[in-house]
Write a structure and sequence with these properties.
The structure holds two protein chains of two kinds. By secondary structure, chain A is an alpha/beta fold. Chain A has 14 helices and 15 strands. In chain A, the strands form three sheets. An eleven-stranded mixed beta sheet of chain A has the order 1-3-2-4-6-5-14-15-9-7-8, sandwiched between helices. In chain A, strands 10-11 form a two-stranded antiparallel sheet. Chain A has a two-stranded antiparallel ribbon with strand order 12-13. In chain A, a hairpin with a 2-residue loop joins strand 12 and strand 13. Chain A starts with 10 loop residues before the first helix and ends in a 10-residue tail after the last helix. Chain B is mainly alpha-helical. Helix content of chain B is 54%, strand content 0%. Chain B has three helices and no strands. The longest helix of chain B is centred in the middle third of the chain and has 18 residues. Chain B is elongated, with a radius of gyration of 20 Å. Chain B starts with a helix and ends with a helix. The chains are: A alpha/beta, B mainly alpha.
């Protein structure tokens, strides 16, 4: 096998080498499995390593490619899957005690599509309990650790997936995002994280109770924008098993990358929503990113979303009753198998009146229309992904961080403050990508979100790829 | 709110302590305050959003608002 450095590797670079038989999928898979064995004990990114299946899939890929049956850019590519996405024959815990022994007899549609594309699944990744939080401090399976500083959280709930990508324990990972659970860990671990449009990717096979219905998305964590685009091209599209999936045609997502962004307008939401809690380091990195977009020929414009302040209420009013409809049976039978904090939240959720839920869905539509109106004058919207670089595990346990001489609580009336910047794009279902836009003085990654109108993921890829090409942030790797 | 939590405690057999009932009731009260502003929004003519479809046009209310 041609010598390759796993740390610098991307799907975009390696796929052509696999196709030309210069890289062996089997050897590549074995190298990732070895690396997982070495690093996973300290990082706790994977809950299950499916070595036998992975080797068998890689061997099959190699055989097919040798015979000239190359399936496409994911053929022979090692992936990981968040543990709330059903995998046939492999334990799917959702990071919970309740599902500790659940082995699905079916694959989620996204897993089925990855397998069809010839991908190699290395294992299942750790996550926040039931995906109901964003620090991946899991009382049952242990905390996933940020590879840039193992005393810090990786974010979540797809924390293990972000760690696996950032630490080069796979080339890409599938996660879920109902409040920022792909973009948040992507930002804190310095990877790219894509949440597509609501309905763009089937959520059939997502563990019920880990994301609700109206704001939940399956997403992709990878090292580059192009890698996200390559994966999306394979997993997107209508699915009869998911009534909320869209029948919008799946375009070629690679095509827009490389098209100049000169003249495009990036909207910045005014009114202070994204100023709440914003730390100086993130503000500076974001301002520098805006300067870079301007250097690339883009313009920025302030935009107004009149009901922006209602986003936290809309998110909570949507997800809590929806989650409870799935948790009700466990609340009745196994309440003490939830961590206490989650149990209290779920019980409080039982007290939300139906009127709140339905009203929220109506207001949510209004908010979506306000974003649609904003997109008449800009092509994308940009915002920081989080207000802070990765907090320490200790910060999360005590409930606050200290930055710029202030104390910032990690929870507020709306619940989890770490998701404040990401939830507007869950409530609206808009496609949004988080990319690395700098590093803090202590060497921690900082993320920027780019959002586009529904089903215009291509625009995200165009702008994000242009930014990525003009900067070097994505080339940094953690010292492990 | 504490009474409502106590009722759930019996119905679901949570076996919550008084201290736990306080914690849950406080969270439920906070949530109720959070949701209050939703009822101040005029949603006349707005149907709930259940699926994103590019072909669905804006509501009359929004079109009027734009003018």
């Amino acid at each position: 096998m041609k010598a390759v450095d796993l740390e610098g590797l991307t799907i975009g670079e390696i796929a052509p080498l696999i196709r030309k038989k210069q890289i062996s999928p089997l050897e590549l898979t074995r190298r990732y499995l070895d690396r997982i064995k070495t690093l996973n004990p300290a990082l706790n990114a994977y809950l299950a390593i499916t070595e036998e299946d992975a080797v068998a899939a890689a061997r099959r890929a190699e055989r097919e490619i040798d015979k000239g049956n190359y399936r496409g850019p994911l053929h022979g590519i090692p992936f990981s899957i968040k543990d709330n996405i059903a995998t046939k024959g492999v334990t799917t815990t959702a990071g919970s005690k309740i599902l500790a022994d659940w082995v699905p007899d079916f694959d989620a549609t996204v897993v089925e599509r990855l397998k069809k594309a010839g991908a190699v699944i290395l294992g299942k990744t750790n996550m926040h309990e039931w995906a109901k939080g964003s620090n991946s401090i899991n009382p049952f399976y242990g905390t996933s650790h940020n590879p840039w500083d193992t005393t810090r959280i990786p974010g979540g709930s797809s924390g293990g997936s972000a760690v696996a990508v950032a630490a080069s324990l796979c080339l890409a990972s599938l996660g879920t995002d109902s409040a920022g659970s792909v973009r948040n860990p992507a930002s804190l671990c310095g990877t790219v994280g894509l949440k597509p449009t609501l309905g763009r990717v089937s959520v059939f096979g997502g563990v019920p109770g880990t994301g609700g219905y109206t704001v939940n998305h399956f997403g992709i964590l990878a090292k580059t924008v192009k890698d996200c685009a390559l994966v999306l091209g394979q997993i997107a599209g209508h699915d009869l098993k998911d009534p909320l999936s869209s029948d919008e045609p799946v375009p070629n997502y690679i095509k827009p990358m490389g098209i100049p962004v000169k003249g495009m307008k990036a909207g910045i939401i005014e009114g202070g929503y994204f100023d709440e809690g914003l730390t100086g380091e993130v503000r500076r990195a974001f301002d520098e990113a805006l300067k870079m977009l301007k250097t690339l020929g883009m313009k920025t414009q302030e935009i107004t979303i009149p009901h922006m302040n209602l986003v936290p209420a809309l998110q909570a009013a949507s997800t809590r009753p929806e989650a409870n409809s799935d948790h009700d049976r466990y609340l009745r039978t196994r309440p003490r198998d939830y961590s206490p904090g989650l149990l209290y939240g779920l019980i409080a959720g039982l007290l939300i009146p139906a009127l709140v839920y339905v009203t929220a869905q109506r207001v949510r539509r209004l908010l979506c229309q306000e974003f649609d109106t904003a997109f008449e004058s800009v092509q994308v919207i940009v915002a920081p992904t989080l207000f802070t670089p990765a907090p320490t595990i200790e910060d999360c346990n005590r409930g606050y961080i200290e930055a710029d001489g202030k104390r910032i609580n990690l929870a507020d009336r709306a619940g989890n403050f770490l998701t404040r910047y990401t939830i507007p794009f869950n409530v609206t279902g808009l496609p949004t990508i988080s990319i690395c836009c700098g590093f803090s003085s202590s060497g921690l990654p900082i993320g920027m979100q780019i959002s586009a109108p529904s089903f215009q993921e291509g625009k995200l890829f165009q702008v994000a790829h242009a930014y990525e090409r003009a900067t070097e942030w994505h080339k940094r790797t953690p010292q492990l | 709110m504490k009474d409502a939590v106590r009722k759930l405690n019996v119905e679901y057999r949570f076996n919550l302590s008084d201290q736990e009932i306080d914690v849950v009731a406080k969270q439920a009260e906070e949530a109720a305050l959070l949701f209050q502003p939703l009822f101040e929004v005029d949603v006349t003519g707005i149907t709930p959003l259940t699926k994103i479809d590019k072909r669905v046009k804006r509501t009359v209310a929004i079109k009027k608002g734009k003018k």
